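Tip: read the tokens left to right.
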């Protein structure tokens, strides 16, 4: 089987993976999806004997067929190296009857490192394969984690510029400082006066603005994306679902073929979609449990089939999920509709004009592999405290949202399947909330002082990437109105 990619909206021809990664977004505003899914064609017991890099090679070779084996191996070696503070890359911790897949041991302390460590290598290789000589401008919106991971991944990568937009008041102090102190001659970090949805909408509009893209081309620049709208971001995330199943099998926690659940805290839907892609490949997954905070548009969608963003945007203590427009949901809709491109066009059109849509009864039926739950800020903090008191395991706010939703799921369904909580960020990224849940000793202290407090309180080692972060020089101070994003890009690139 040859794996090609096509747009969810059907107005573009099928293309190879290198071209899809280089373009980022399809010309008809759709997202690239596999025409057919590859299958897991080795025994799961064989996967159990593979380390992370070997699983990555096995999965990427299936999805990225126009890359040579050597190109993939080189990219994997460069991505999953000593940047990660554990040789396992994605360690699996067991606490009582649940497993935590810790995806935050990379340089930026968040799960985005898993894909954004390898994307620069995939993208620059794709440019060479496609004979693209223009400077590649990586453009992304971030709710806090993608931004730093993209900046870190692309810093000083030859023939690239990376421009990140983030909501001025919608990220934690540590997330903001990670971005604003980023070194690299080709890195640009811009705060916008608005929320993440404003930033994401602006970036999408830029990708789809023909005149602006022509102007960029004439100045020898082309846009590509580091957001999960890029299939090159999504495919590497499939790896850790397959790897985790293998690790559970290797430890004797499950039997070969036994189905398991994954609980994923998600706002933009990319992380949980990677789990769905793993399931489509044949990984024995029972339920994909979608955990939301009070911006619970995905919870409502999974439970009603109605996606409605006509609601108040809430700033929560799990800010990376403060999202109402979930970009990757379009890829799931495409699968739920069994590739009905006309229907996807109508649905996406409704979202633009009415801020809502409802899926068909058949699509609702196809959604049954998902469960949706949500938590309040108060429940999130209570969960962090309770789990720590019971087991001394320290969770960040996003992981706590997932854990609480899993408790709701278990209570409601009585399902006893082995379950993995996808832990998306280090507790050190959200020290104020975490130490606030665990202790009363945060009065008058900023997030940087609380790093030490958290370490002293829990005995948890301070990760190297944030030691002395508050002492680093702030290099990026630009703030712009959301309507001025194009002008700011031109200014950054001296066009």
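Filled-in amino acids:
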């Amino acid at each position: 089987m040859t794996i090609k990619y096509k747009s969810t909206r059907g107005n573009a021809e099928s293309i190879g993976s290198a071209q899809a990664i280089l373009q980022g977004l399809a010309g008809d505003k759709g997202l690239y999806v596999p025409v057919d899914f590859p299958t897991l064609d080795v025994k799961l017991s064989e996967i159990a004997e593979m380390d992370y890099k070997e699983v990555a090679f096995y999965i990427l070779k299936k999805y990225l067929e126009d890359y040579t084996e050597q190109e993939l191996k080189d990219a994997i070696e460069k991505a999953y190296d000593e940047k990660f503070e554990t040789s396992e890359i994605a360690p699996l911790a067991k606490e009582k009857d649940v497993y935590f897949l810790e995806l935050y041991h990379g340089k930026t302390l968040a799960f985005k490192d898993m894909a954004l460590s390898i994307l620069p290598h995939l993208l620059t290789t794709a440019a060479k394969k496609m004979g693209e000589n223009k400077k590649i401008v990586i453009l992304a919106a971030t709710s806090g984690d993608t931004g730093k991971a993209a900046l870190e991944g692309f810093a000083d990568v030859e023939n690239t510029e990376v421009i990140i937009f983030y909501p001025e008041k919608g990220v934690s102090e540590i997330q903001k400082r990670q971005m604003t102190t980023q070194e690299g001659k080709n890195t640009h970090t811009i705060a916008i006066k608005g929320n993440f949805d404003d930033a994401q909408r602006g970036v999408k509009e830029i990708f789809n603005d023909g005149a602006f893209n022509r102007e960029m081309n004439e100045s020898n620049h082309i846009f590509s994306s580091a957001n999960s709208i890029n299939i090159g971001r999504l495919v590497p995330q499939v790896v850790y679902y397959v790897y985790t199943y293998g690790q559970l099998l290797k430890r004797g926690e499950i039997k070969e073929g036994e189905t398991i659940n994954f609980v994923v805290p998600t706002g933009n839907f990319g992380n949980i979609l990677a789990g769905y892609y793993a399931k489509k490949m044949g990984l024995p997954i029972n339920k994909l449990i979608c955990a939301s905070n009070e911006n619970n548009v995905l919870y409502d969608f999974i439970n009603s089939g109605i996606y409605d963003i006509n609601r108040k945007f809430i700033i929560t203590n799990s800010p990376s999920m403060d999202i109402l427009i979930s970009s990757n949901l379009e890829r799931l809709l495409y699968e739920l509709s069994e590739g009905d491109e006309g229907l996807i066009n109508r649905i996406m059109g409704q979202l633009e004009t009415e801020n809502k849509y409802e899926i068909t009864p058949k699509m609702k039926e196809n959604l049954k592999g998902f469960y949706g739950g949500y938590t309040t800020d108060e429940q999130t903090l209570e969960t962090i405290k309770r789990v720590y008191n019971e087991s001394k395991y320290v969770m960040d706010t996003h992981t706590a949202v997932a854990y609480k939703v899993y408790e709701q799921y278990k209570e409601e369904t009585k399902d006893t399947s082995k379950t993995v909580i996808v832990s998306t960020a280090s507790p050190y990224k959200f020290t104020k909330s975490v130490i606030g849940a665990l202790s009363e000793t945060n009065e008058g202290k900023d997030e940087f002082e609380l790093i030490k407090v958290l370490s002293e309180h829990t005995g948890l080692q301070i990760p190297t990437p944030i030691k002395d972060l508050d002492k680093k020089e702030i290099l990026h101070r630009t703030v712009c109105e959301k309507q001025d994003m194009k002008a700011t890009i031109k200014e950054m690139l001296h066009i």
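DSSP finds 21 helices and 15 strands in the chain. Residues 452 and 495 are 44 Å apart (CA to CA).
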